[in-house]
Amino acid sequence: MARRRGSPAYSRRSSGRPRTGGRQRGQQSPKFRAAFCATCLVDQFYPEVGVAAVKVLRRLGVDVSFPEDQTCCGQIAFNGGFRSHAADIAKHFLDVFENEEQVVVPSGSCASMIKVYYRELFEDDPETLERAQAVSEKTRELSDYIVNVVGTSDVGAASEGLVTYHDACHLLRELRIKEAPRDLIGSVRGVELQEMEDSDACCGFGGLFSVKFPEISTAILDEKLKTIAESGAGAVVANDCGCLMHIRGAMERRGMNVRAMHLAELLAGDGTDG
Amino acid sequence: MSPTPEEHPNKAAFLLRVRSALGRTEPIVHMPDHPSLKSNAMRQQEKVRTVVARNEARRSSTLDRLARTAAAASWNVRRAGDTEEAASIIAEIAQQSGVKSLVRSAEDVFKRVNVDTALRSVGVSPAILASGRSRSRGALRDMAFRADMGVTGVSYAIAETASCAVTPRRGVARLASLAPPRLVLLIEPDQVLETLDDFFAITRLNRMQARGRTTNYFNFISGPSRTADIEQTLTIGVHGPGEVHMVILG
Amino acid sequence: MAEVKSAEFKKASGKALRDEKLQHSLEHVMEHFVGARANVIENDFGDEPWEAMRTRAAAIKQSTLEHLDYYLDMVDKSVRRNGGHVYFADDAAQANAIVLDIAKRNGVKTVIKSKSMVSEEMGINHVLEREGIEPVETDLGEYIIQLAGETPFHIIAPAMHKTRGEVSTLFQEWLKTAPTQDIKRLCVYARDALREKFAIADMGISGANFVVAETGTVCLVTNEGNGRMTTSAPRVHVVLAGMEKIVPAIEDLALFLRLLPRSATGQRITSYNTFVGGPRAPSDEDGPEEFHLILVDNGRLNLLRDEVLREALRCIRCGACLNHCPVYRKVGGHAYGWVYSGPIGAIVTPPMTNMKVARDLPYASTLCGTCKDVCPVKIDIPRLLLHLRHKVAEGVIGERSTTWMERLFVGQWHGAMRSRKALEGKANLGKLLTRPFTRGGKVRKLPFAPMVSGWTASRDFPAPAPKSFARLWREELAHDNGTEQR
């Protein structure tokens, strides 16, 4: 336990790559330094999203580290009502990340767990609450980080075709992030953003909800798939692997010819992969 | 006047449970801090004085605003230059609707606007809907339900929402503005207020100044009776009047 | 008290999902409400911006709740000063007994009712019928569902699930009217039938949208005129009000009368607002001679007592959270199994009725947060749902009510997420277990895990990646010097 606290065993060593800056700056010490929180879904199911996110951040000259003892923010247990389990895992999250300068998360719901719901989780534990608040303040969702911290909406990406954007619920309604992802998509060369009807409507995932009430979840998803199809876009982009797992899972089952991709994947494209 | 009804035997225990649910053991002695409870009668009077002055100053634009919001809320709006014109407009409405039996209330405004003569001139004889000596509760109800049209005055008309505040009292039966399928409300310029806030500020003052029991009842009428309960299809005229006319003096 | 069928949520929602006609009306009506609300809020706010109004309303209601004992006392004194009777009922049974007592003392044969959700909680209609008293709902929607023997489908559109054809059939059966597809005609049939009842009713029962403490004024918000009829025609008027319905002063109504109709039906104001605080004055031409206000607890204390759930009592029953909820829009009102449905129903039903029976309701939400954004009194519905889930899962107010499968899953998850080492161990096991069911990186069916098989019935589940991100970082990314040149 003692070793894990602060995680010197993994994170310090693993993130200790040469601290040279990004290509634009070519300075000895980069302007931006961020610890990447991959989220459990990306770590276990969609590592390519993490790879893409790191690629984009590095392209912007961000010095990215990956504290390797990280696991999960605890949201799944918290949303299920299992708060003591969630608190345990959330504390581990704090152990891993509290010494970092900045934490970047490629997920609206994980970011809102950390930034909004840790307050709730630790309301009766003032000591941890204080730590949580400190971590919460330096945690940013990926698109928010790029646009509002790094300060650019053009990450030098290129791709092609019509893309539609799905507002992940927590990103939009807990973190109020609406424009940043759109600005980023809008700056990708060769890509046109085609808004779908009701882009802010829930896809029906809701974590535990999607397995506890699969029929309702699927019925809500049907509406989302309909609006995606009607947009005529070749790809639907979102900032949350929960929504994406849900949307993609049904599109693949039904053989829909639309790609479901994480914003990071779109932004990582440089036009060479078509 | 009947005595004040007694306190319910469960009250004390009920309040005790509420209090303990809120984590308190003692009752609250001082009035909680609440902006709209703060003013005493004197300060409320000052507030109302400002409200009245503002409404007087802006009367003509408020009348226009009322006419606009009322038209948007499905009122048939007519404006009358003087009392004579108002009376003849009401007669005209009755005539055009083919009204046979008409009830009206007995507000002061009808002393100034002689609707009875105008109505009789088009062959409609108005009846005043009041219980009086000879009319029982049931008879008054029957009379109201049988009428084709009701004509009444208002206490206030609120431009913001096109709401007419109708306050039943002696000579003003509740059913006069409710039971007949057509309703005409006659509004005088000094009854028009800009906002709901204005109206409730005045109402609060009236309640504070009232000695003993005052009327405990008033209504806003803000348009025709309507429902959308079947297939979300708007239908006008369910239990109340489906055809509503606002005649504005001024 | 009305029967609680919330344990059947899953089954009932499945039935609703398969009812094509119902799905059609849900879509149609919800779209209408959502559109009308958005339109009026966008185009028609007055001097005070919408957000400011919501904030102020939330603060007024919250403060009233924090001082509820004080304001209840104030209501009691004001109404009695007006000559009305006031009662405090702990539960549905007490409230029913009070109504019945008033009815019997007055020899009441027919009761006309204007809409009251509290009366639905109480199941008063059955109680009256058992005593040979005829209750007649006068709100058209309520009247339709009364004839159909159902409960309200929606707080403000109780019969929205009925088609004109079904209403016509009901009217043919009960009112002996001719069949028709004309909605206007149907309204006339109802109007005529109800006029007869208005003429003979000896008692009117209404709900209360607001109860003003300082003046003892009950405010009713209606469109049809039945609220006025109920408070004008009969000799006795009984008001049933949840004890949380109080606003301190009459000037507060200006704010709430702006918020409620805009949120509910997208109207600037409803056709009628009735303000009544006691019996008719001796000089009045008509109106009830007796006025009775019954303030009802019936489980509300369980909400009040809980500092998080307390704010649910701010609710002014506008129905906006229902109209905007992706779950309600699919399953409709009856699936929730009691009087209140949608997000607010999912919150108030368990504490007001039975935590165990209604344990599924707090989970019947994707936590998408739309409800919170549209609530006119800013109830943080997702937060309250999460709070209730905590109570259900960890047995905070009794035994744990989750399934063994959920507990097993969370236990396993917890074991895996304690450290990177544990995670990689469990992940390897997961890969091993899912491998036989994996084709092309997708899991199509997981027969041994009932929780996950619900997912895979309609959606592919991703197979665990061959290499986790952490491993990719170790093996490749960490050694990249961080600069990318292409």
Which class of secondary structure composition applies to the elements of chain C?
Answer: alpha/beta
Strand order of the largest sheet of chain A: 2-1-3-4
Strand order of the largest sheet of chain C: 1-10-7-4-2-3
Biggest sheet descriptor of chain C: 6 strands, parallel
Number of helices of chain A: 14
Radius of gyration of chain A: 18 Å
Helix percent of chain C reads 40-55%
Major protein interface: B-C, 83 and 103 residues
**Secondary-structure class of chain A:** alpha/beta
Uncertain segments of chain C of ≥5 residues (pLDDT<50)? none
Order of helices and strands of chain A: HEHHEHHEHHEHEHHEHHEHEH
> What's the shape of chain C?
elongated
Brief rundown of the structure:
Chain A is α/β, with parallel strands linked by helices and 274 residues long.
Features:
heterotrimer, A: 274 residues, alpha/beta, four-stranded parallel β-sheet, 13% strand, globular, C: 486 residues, six-stranded parallel β-sheet, four-stranded mixed β-sheet, 13 strands, 49% helix, elongated
Descriptive notes:
The complex is a heterotrimer of chains A (274), B (250) and C (486). By secondary structure, chain A is an alpha/beta fold. Chain A has helices at residues 8-14, 40-44, 47-59, 75-80, 83-97, 108-121, 126-137, 142-150, 169-173, 179-186, 208-212, 214-231, 241-254, 263-268; strands at 32-36, 62-65, 103-105, 139-141, 158-165, 189-193, 235-238, 259-262. Chain B is an alpha/beta fold and 250 residues long. Helices cover 38% and strands 19% of the residues of chain B. In chain B, the strands form 3 sheets. Chain B has a 6-stranded parallel beta sheet with strand order 1-12-7-4-2-3, sandwiched between helices. In chain B, strands 8-5-6-9 form a 4-stranded mixed beta sheet. In chain B, helix 3 (41-57) crosses helix 9. Chain B is globular. The mean pLDDT of chain B is 93. With 486 residues, chain C is of the alpha/beta class. Chain C contains 22 helices and 13 strands. In chain C, the strands form 3 sheets. Chain C has a 6-stranded parallel beta sheet, sandwiched between helices. Chain C is elongated and about 90 Å long. The relative contact order of chain C is 0.12. The model of chain C has no long low-confidence stretch (mean pLDDT 93). The chains are: A alpha/beta (274), B alpha/beta (250), C alpha/beta (486). The interface between B and C is large, with 83 and 103 residues.
